[in-house]
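Why should sequence recovery work at all? Because a backbone constrains its sequence more than one might expect. Tight turns favour small or flexible residues, buried strands favour hydrophobic ones, and helices have their own preferences. The token representation captures these environments compactly. In the example below, the structure is given first.
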């Protein structure tokens, strides 16, 4: 199952992405926010995830590039949307009986 592409807002300085931000809000039911910040002293990017449910318990993750952090964010998004789709499908089937 593939969901829409995430729309990132990048802040670039001297040709380097210093931070990137993405928000998803589906009718106020599903809210996710991803922030990726550059840590130049460590030469890594930290990804922070905010949202409802299990998303609010995710600790910051460290990545070697902004692209790998964005790919991980898409996996988190896809997993959350997949769980939501299963729940909605289950409710629809239950209502038909």
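From this structural description, the recovered sequence reads:
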């Amino acid at each position: 199952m593939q969901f829409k592409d995430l729309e990132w807002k990048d802040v670039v300085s001297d040709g380097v992405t210093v931070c990137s931000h993405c928000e998803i809000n589906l009718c106020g039911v599903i809210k996710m926010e991803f922030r990726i910040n550059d840590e130049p002293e460590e030469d890594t990017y930290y990804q922070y995830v905010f949202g409802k449910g299990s998303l609010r318990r995710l600790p910051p993750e460290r990545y070697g590039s902004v692209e790998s952090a964005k790919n991980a964010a898409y996996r988190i998004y896809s997993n959350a949307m997949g769980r939501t789709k299963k729940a909605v499908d289950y409710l629809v089937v239950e209502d038909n009986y």
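A few observations help interpret the result. Strands lie at 9-13, 16-26, 30-39, 44-51, 61-63.
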